[in-house]
Amino acid sequence: MSTPADIVKTFLAMWETPGGIEKSLRDYFTPETRYENVGLSVTTGVDQAMAVFAGFSASLGMATMWVENLHVAAAGDTVLTERIDHVRDSSGKTLMSIRVMGAFDVKEGKIMAWRDYFDTAGFASGAS
Q1: Nearest CA-CA partner of 85 in 72, 77, 75, 95
Q2: What is the DSSP-derived secondary structure letter of residue 78?
Q3: CATH class of the domain comprising 4-118
Q4: Three-state secondary-structure class, residue 86
Q5: CA–CA dist 128, 121 (Å, integer)
Q6: Where along the chain do its domains lie?
Q7: pLDDT in tens, 49-58
Q8: Please, which residues bridge with residue 119 across strands?
């Protein structure tokens, strides 16, 4: 059986392929999963989370995202990630890179809660 850290790393790695973000949300979220981009949005369930990512994709021209995990730590069912999310267009060009700290609560192989805290400088500059 996969550990909570394995589940989170797999979830984030799926974003590297076209359609991977949607697939990861469908595979690892439940109807009750709460996803919060602290200070920006709070969603419940797959459809609301997908709408946030769809808006992000449309406004930035994002097709995929490569997640560079700097540190992953787990205590029980809670997983913390320090990472850099590299937003890429359909040609693979990096549009911007955002430093993120995430907290995931995992239960029975599913992500029940996910909170991301990020450095807004990546959005402000639009550059990596």
Answers
A1: 95
A2: E
A3: alpha beta
A4: strand
A5: 10
A6: 4-118
A7: 999 999 989 9
A8: none
